Each structure stands twice: as C-alpha cells, then as structure tokens.
Fold this sequence. Notes:
CATH class of the largest domain: Alpha Beta
Oligomer: single chain
Mean pLDDT: 84
Protein name: Universal stress protein
Low-confidence stretches: 105-115, 259-269
Pfam family, one: Usp
Organism: Limihaloglobus sulfuriphilus
Family: Belongs to the universal stress protein A family.
Domain UspA: 1-132, 153-287
Amino acid sequence: MFSKVLIATDSSPSSYATLGCADALYMLGTRECVLAQCFMIKEQVAFPDQIKDSIVSSLDTQKEILESKGIKTTVVAELGLAGEQIPKIAEKRNCSLIVAGSHGHNLANEILLGGTAAEIIHQTKKPVLIIHLKADEETGKPLYADNNKNLRHHILYATDFSEHSSLAFEYVCKFVECGTVHVTLLHVQDQARLGIHLKDRLDEFNEIDKQRLEELKKRLVKIGDAEIDIEIPYGSPVSEILKRINGTDVSAVIMGSHGRGFISEIFLGSVSHNVIRHSQSPVLLIPRQIEGADPTKESCNIK
C-alpha cells in the first residue's frame, strides 16, 4: 500500500520535520519516494536549469534521511507553483500518495512548500496525507509528532454516507487488510442541519445510520481482526470529529476531500478543511476521483 509516494518539500525546517513520517510511511509499505520542490524565478532570469540543479543538490540531506529508512528516493525540482505542479509531478511519476506537512491553524493562508496545502488538495486526483507538525515549546521550531509512528494502529473513519465517503471507505478496508487493529466508524448527526424541525426524528435517523455503519463493520470483520467501534454523536461534525481525534489514540483519520471540480471557497469552509486545521493526527484525504496507481489494489508490503 502506498508503495511510491511524493513528499512535497523545500529547505525549510518544516520540510525536515515532515520527514519524520518516514518510519510511518515505511510501515505502510512505502519503498520509493519522489522528493519534489517547486520554485519560481523572474522572467529575466535565463538560467532555470542552474537553479534546478542547485535545488536538487540542496535536497541531498533530505534524500539521505529517507534512504536511511529504507525508502529509495528521487529528487525532482520543477519551475512553477507547488499547488499546480505537485499534482502533475505525482501523476507523471505514478505516485499513489502525496504527503505534505502543515502547521495546522493557518492552513488556508500559510505558504506551504511553495504553494498552499489547500491548492494541492484542490488540484490533485491523488490521496493526500497531511502531516500535523507541532512547535517545539522552547524554540518554536516545527517538529513531527512522535506519536504518529504507526499510522495503521487506530483509524478514525468519518462518513456522511455519500458516494465520496464510500470511496474513502475502500482505504479503510485496505488499512484493515494491512494490519490495523482498531477502527472507529463515525457519523455525526449534524445539529445545524437537523435544527428544531427534525430533531424529534433523531432516534429514527440514529437507527437508520446505525444499520448503515453495521454493514460497514461487517465488511471490515470479514477482512481482518480489527476491533470496530461505531459512534453516532449529535452536534457539530467538526467538533465531534476533533473530540475523538484529539482525545483518544487515533493514529490517522480517513475521510473524503472535495478535490477538483469544486471552487476553493467550498473546500476552505468544509468539514475536511477544518478537521485538517485542528487535527493532532495525520489526515488522509481521498479525492472524488483517483487517477493512476490505486493504492487499494497494491499489496500491503508491510513489516
């Protein structure tokens, strides 16, 4: 699973911190990586090849870090905005996953590795793993959260029962096949949508949605030996999801993203975006359409 990934990078402390996920990626089956950096130059500069060579050389240390973890690494530098070029590189190089680090709260505004995380997610038709970086309490420098060494341990799957969520569930199935020991299936009864007019039917909705989650549970039980929990809270989807991420041992969240075909403003106001901003665990976002290599069809290749 995720045998070949693209890690969006640069020479910043954040990019080095993001490489802390190398062990976790290896445990997911990653054996090959494209380390990609994008750059911009002024029109009058006539030597982009020299700039590209300089960037490739500067990323040698990051390449060595990844290869020391058993991940064969190729360094790529491309002219252009990361939000546009990273998805293209991932497609061209047949990567099954894009990995990017984020400080979280400023996701919509911060420059992330030459572009914005939201732009990468919006443009790509590849799954995107957003790695949460925390700040060192003394220095303020970004750090990789050590509790994220094994992303397969406890998966939280948040669903609204849409077709898009069903696609994301296929990745939950793959994680269970590859050794996940605990899965929480979560559907939040949206308080804002039910309002005062439908709240009296909450028990009815809960029963219907419990049956839906039970069917998903049956699929997972047939695949592996994971402990499966079902939860149907009532409230704000973002708040209820984050409560379970940040208050338990959840190692990764799997959910759908909006992806291409939806304007950025919709994504930036979505549940997915707000979960990414505040989640202390990595979030795996699955686009509506997958192009190229399908990770759910790959062998686990785990150790």
